[in-house]
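ARCHIVE CARD
CATEGORY: sequence design from structure
SOURCE FIELD: tokenized fold
FIELD CONTENT:
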């Protein structure tokens, strides 16, 4: 059992994926971990409450995703790329990515008001200048002129199956922007099921990359989907329709 002051698991995860955590980032991760514990009962933030597991499952997976996106040239070190975390919940993977790469311009999109208040508190207490919190459903975010077609990269962790996620996320991307979607054992099936959605939204699957996780964890891949065509004004459809009637 780890304590809130023990960030050895985080240090190990960061070293394993070659993401440098400097002293300031270390302090921010420690405070983030403490805020998660303080707020969890009020906001229902995460089912994972053990500090070591938060570091491994939430912080570690987020840093692993950052490492993949750096390796693909999508989020180069020190560059101010526009990143959206769709359905971010308690801030994963976006906030750990920003803590490790403060040059990012991060938008956290979350529909739950209590979680948004938590995210705003984290941003304030950690003095994170490059973050904004938007309370919105995914469908509404994709139609918001302030958000539509504005991001270089969109990430979404365990938000929806790929046919639905494509409809949510691709309208947020600039042309040639990329959706990065971590997926588990059904990645290949979801990719096949998303063919109609990809055609409708002008998306192309660029690659499937292994997510470099702790070997004790179930394997995941990151599906990288580029928006390579014009946006259709019909998408995303109104709230609820993408999940009720996925594009097939």
């Amino acid at each position: 059992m780890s304590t809130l002051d023990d960030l050895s698991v985080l240090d190990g995860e960061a070293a394993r994926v070659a993401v440098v955590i400097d002293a300031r980032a270390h302090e921010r991760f420690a405070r983030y971990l403490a805020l998660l514990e303080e707020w969890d009962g009020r906001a229902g933030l995460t089912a994972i409450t053990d500090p070591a597991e938060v570091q491994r499952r939430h912080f570690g997976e987020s840093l692993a995703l950052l490492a993949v996106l750096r390796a693909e040239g999508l989020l180069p070190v020190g560059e101010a790329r526009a990143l959206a975390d769709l359905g971010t919940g308690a801030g994963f993977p976006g906030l750990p990515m920003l803590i490790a790469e403060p040059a990012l311009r991060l938008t956290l999109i979350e529909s739950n008001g209590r979680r948004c208040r938590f995210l705003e508190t984290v941003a304030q207490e950690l003095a994170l200048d490059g973050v904004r919190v938007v309370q919105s459903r995914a469908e509404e975010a994709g139609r918001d002129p302030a958000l539509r077609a504005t991001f270089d990269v969109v990430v979404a962790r365990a938000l929806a199956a790929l046919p639905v996620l494509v409809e949510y996320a691709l309208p947020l991307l600039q042309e040639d922007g990329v959706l990065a979607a971590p997926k588990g054992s059904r990645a290949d099936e979801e990719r096949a099921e998303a063919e109609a959605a990809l055609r409708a939204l002008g998306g192309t699957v660029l690659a499937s990359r292994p997510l470099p996780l702790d070997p004790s964890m179930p394997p995941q891949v990151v599906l990288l989907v580029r928006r390579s065509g014009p946006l259709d004004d019909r998408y995303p459809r109104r709230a609820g329709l993408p999940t009720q009637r996925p594009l097939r």
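CARD ANNOTATION: The chain has one domain: 61-244. The domain at 61-244 is CATH 3.40.50.150 (Rossmann fold).
SHELF: design records, drawer C
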